Amino acid sequence: MSGVSNVVYWLHEHGLTPTDHLVEEIFRAAKERNRVLADAEILEICKFEAVEKERPLPLDTVSAWKERIGS
Questions:
Q1: For residue 44, what are the contacts with CB-CB under 8 A and spacing of at least 6?
Q2: pTM for this entry
Q3: Which of 47, 17, 56, 13 is CA-nearest to residue 29?
Q4: Integer angstrom CA distances of residue 51 from 35, 43, 55, 57
Q5: Which pLDDT belongs to residue 1?
């Protein structure tokens, strides 16, 4: 499996929509750190990307994120 497919899989498993840009950002962050990202780190990237799209995520729960990010 490629790193990108792992990112897509993780997003699907957490009920999040894997947009091209989001997948690229998570993959880039993982490559920069040269290690597996923690779930909290990936969720922070998702939150940042949602804010960048002017879709703020005020709650720090996965279920709230799922509703707002597009799953």
A1: none
A2: 0.69
A3: 47
A4: 25, 12, 5, 7
A5: 45
Each residue of 16-56: pLDDT tens digit?
889 999 999 999 999 999 888 999 999 999 988 876 776 55
pLDDT of 9 > 90? The answer is yes
How many residues in the chain? 71
Report, in angstroms and rounded to the nearest whole number, the Rg of the chain calculated over CA atoms.
11
Torsion of CA 10, 70, 20, 51, to 10 degrees: -100
In order, the DSSP letters of 10-24 are HHHHTT----HHHHH
The two tokens of residue 62 are: 């996965």
Tokens of 24: 């690229």
